[in-house]
Design brief:
83 residues; 2 helices
Length: 83
């Protein structure tokens, strides 16, 4: 649990760990899809999200979802790193 900002940061830290394990960084993220429980949380989410992608953020889709029960945000990312 926690605030929108705390949950967003936790999601992005988990994504960062997965990226590192794959030899990638946040700069390699080319697309993200975001599900928010409440529309009014977008500004708080966006502030934290933007701090992880300060230069050239990836393409992004953002949706409001009633399927999020115990969480406020879910983030899925696709990364690409040429060999």
């Amino acid at each position: 649990t926690g605030s929108m900002e705390e949950q967003t940061q936790a999601c992005l830290e988990e994504i960062g760990e997965t990226l590192r394990e794959s030899g990638c960084t946040y700069a390699d993220v080319v697309k993200s899809t975001v599900w928010l429980k409440r529309r009014q949380d977008f500004p708080g989410f966006n502030e934290i999200y933007g701090s992880y992608f300060p230069d050239g953020p990836p393409a992004r889709s953002a949706l409001i979802s009633d399927f999020l029960v115990d969480i406020l945000v879910e983030i899925e990312c696709v990364a690409y790193r040429p060999l």
